[in-house]
Amino acid sequence: MARQSTLTDAPFALREGVVSMRPFTRRDAASADYLRWMNDPQVTRTIGRFDYLLPVSRTKLKQYFEDIDADTTVFLAILAPTTRGGLPRFVGTLKIYDLDPLARRASLGIMVGERKAWGRGIATASIRAACRYVFEVLGFGKVTAGYLSTNGGMHQAFRRNGFRTEGVLRKQVFFAGKLVDHVMVCKFANGKQRA
Ligand SMILES: CC(C)(COP(=O)(O)OP(=O)(O)OC[C@H]1O[C@@H](n2cnc3c(N)ncnc32)[C@H](O)[C@@H]1OP(=O)(O)O)[C@@H](O)C(=O)NCCC(=O)NCCS
Question: Does the Cβ of 38 fall within 6 Å of ligand 1?
Answer without folding.
Answer: no
